Amino acid sequence: MKGYRTIYILPNAVTTAALFCGFYAILAAINGRFDHAAVLIFVAMIFDGFDGRVARWTKTESDFGVQYDSLSDLISFGVAPSILIYQWALHGSISDPLLPTKLGAMSAFIYTACAALRLARFNIQVEQVDKAFFVGLPSPAAAAVVTSFVWVGARYDFAMSQYALLPAIIVVCVGLAMVANISYYSFKTFKLEGRIPFSRAFVPAAIIALIFLEPPLMLFLIFGAYALHGPLWSVWRYWRRQRKKAHD
After folding, report:
1. What's the total number of domains in the chain?
2. Contact 89, 33 (CB under 8 A)
3. What does the alpha-carbon distance between residue 148 and residue 17 come to, in Å, rounded to a whole number?
4. Which residue did the predictor score with more confidence, 173 or 124?
5. CA atoms within 13 A on the CB side of 205
6. Is residue 3 situated within a structural domain?
7. 115 contacts 178 by C-beta, under 8 angstroms
């Protein structure tokens, strides 16, 4: 088997930065600094979005980089969000007489396992699927839903540890969305250098302004809408097919 004696510095340094953010987010969550942990996971998402582009721009793509990126994603978008929501809310199932004692831990584990399965499936299907769509909710988007949910709760002091059932349902549903055979628009065909009508030129500025105004809530709404668009789109396409069959 061919061994790697050298690796490309720049793209793997960006991946390492994402991994560091995920690792530090875990430490912050354990120490109860939930808002800091949430910010670090979103910063990891930014680095994760750039490592592949940096590799393509500098023509330094490699199989090593692909595998290293997946391992980094598992930590930053699989383990870190599950520990974050467990420390913030899911541990409350231990003291809730109406819920199973291990509900919180098992819910967090299901999310982590689904993230690992999602990344493994992506690696073996990367050359076989339509680039315009993801099969299953991407792990960074799943992490964004869970993380922003915790961030909103921490910002507004929601005592969710007393109501562990809702966070458990959310984290399990988001986890299952990662491994479901549901198509999600990937935005890989969207070109930043492309053109838009002048009448819509205000849209990017408006989105940035809204996120800056209230980052936790706006990020939760944006990524929550993205997580829901896959199932809703699938239902709509199924309805269209059934309607077409009925007319035929």
Report:
1. 1
2. no
3. 21
4. 173
5. 5
6. no
7. yes
pLDDT value at residue 1 = 44
Cβ-contact 15, 72 below 8 angstroms = yes
Q: Which of 4-13, 25-34, 103-112, 208-217 has the lowest mean pLDDT?
A: 4-13
Of 169, 167, 150, residue with least CA distance to 84:
150
* Contact in structure between 60 and 11 (CB atoms under 8 Å): yes
In terms of residue numbers, what domain contains 179? 9-188+196-247
Question: Whole-model pTM above 0.85?
Answer: yes
pLDDT tens profile 108-151: 999 999 999 999 998 887 666 667 788 899 999 999 999 999 99
**Res. 5: pLDDT tops 80:** no
Grouping H, G, I as helix, E, B as strand and the rest as coil, residue 189 is coil
> Would 139 be classed as within a structural domain?
yes
User: Nearest-CA neighbor of 78 among 139, 167, 137?
Assistant: 139
Question: Encoding tokens for residue 46?
Answer: 């930014």
| Comparison of pLDDT for 147 and 236, the residue scoring more | 147
Structure tokens at 92: 């409350």
- CATH code for position 165: 1.20.120.1760
Q: Is 140 part of a structural domain of the chain?
A: yes
Asked if residue 4 belongs to a domain, the reply is no
Q: Which residues contact 130 (CB under 8 A, 6 or more apart)?
A: none
Residue with structure tokens 């969710």?
160
